[in-house]
Amino acid sequence: MSEDRSFIKDKKRIVVKIGSSSLIHPETGGIDYVRLEKLVRILSDLKNRGKEVVLVSSGAIGVGRKSLGLKEKPENLALKQACAAVGQGQLMMIYQKLFLEYNHKAAQVLLTFDVITSDERRKNAKNTLNELIGLGIIPVVNENDTVATEEIEFGDNDTLSAIVATLINADLLIVLTDQDGLFTDDPTKNPDAKKISVVKKIDESLVNMAKGSSTTFGTGGMSTKIAAARIATDTGTDMVICNSNDLTNISRVVNGKDVGTLFISHEQDDFDAKDFIINKKYMD
């Protein structure tokens, strides 16, 4: 199923989420600078078109792991936090340098899970993000992995990106992944799996489709993206899942092309994003 997406051209406030698997060479764990530079160039072009852009970026732990010379992905919490402490500054320095090359400024915003549970922190985060956007600065958001514990972490930036979209009343959330969108089955295992172009309602059958589908380097599989879509669409933000292997997909989505899977927003007055996130976290 497909339909006219020309209405997306009018979207002004856009959140783009990119995961670790889209930023890091899987063979070495090193940063893919070519892809990172292309991402920044495309986002800068959106800014030049008059769009308001927020980037939600993973990668701090992966960058820190490489910098510290660790061959294996860290498993214990303290080592993850150490990697994040080293990697976050390095990653942000790269982003700021690249954005400056295209005459745009970027600012680091680190959030923790309690931004959802605390009304005051949520308000402060919203005000900070809106102020940065108003100043023409591109916020680069990540979870604050250096202080988050397993009990209070988001666990993946898919959820975080939906929260950010909700906080700033974004018009569109673009989630980049290593798949072309949502499929009827895992396309890496079932060659007959079909891509779904448009989702108007997220039901149990859709959730079951996403189970078992994963990415190669990050923490979030397709099921976390469906949860993010639920948060985004039920709070009034359209969302698109598309493949990061071709980053021009971002521009194509914004231009209203039939790329990836579009989740149509249907704002629900009785939907409480905070309760949904907290309840889902403790049910998983």
Automatic annotation (TrEMBL):
Its main location: cytoplasm. It catalyses: L-glutamate + ATP = L-glutamyl 5-phosphate + ADP. Substrate binds at residues 58, 145, 157. It is found in: Cytoplasm. It is an enzyme of class 2 (transferase). ATP binds at residues 17, 177-178, 219-225. Signal peptide: none annotated. The keyword Amino-acid biosynthesis applies. The keyword Nucleotide-binding applies. Its EC number is 2.7.2.11. Pathway: Amino-acid biosynthesis; L-proline biosynthesis; L-glutamate 5-semialdehyde from L-glutamate: step 1/2. It comes from the Bacteria. Keywords: Amino-acid biosynthesis, ATP-binding, Cytoplasm, Kinase, Nucleotide-binding, Proline biosynthesis, Transferase. Residues 12-243 form the Aspartate/glutamate/uridylate kinase domain. Pfam families: AA_kinase (PF00696). GO terms for biological process: L-proline biosynthetic process. One of its GO terms (cellular component) is cytosol. Belongs to the glutamate 5-kinase family. Catalyzes the transfer of a phosphate group to glutamate to form L-glutamate 5-phosphate. HAMAP family: ProB (MF_00456). This is Glutamate 5-kinase. It comes from Eubacterium ruminantium. The gene is proB.
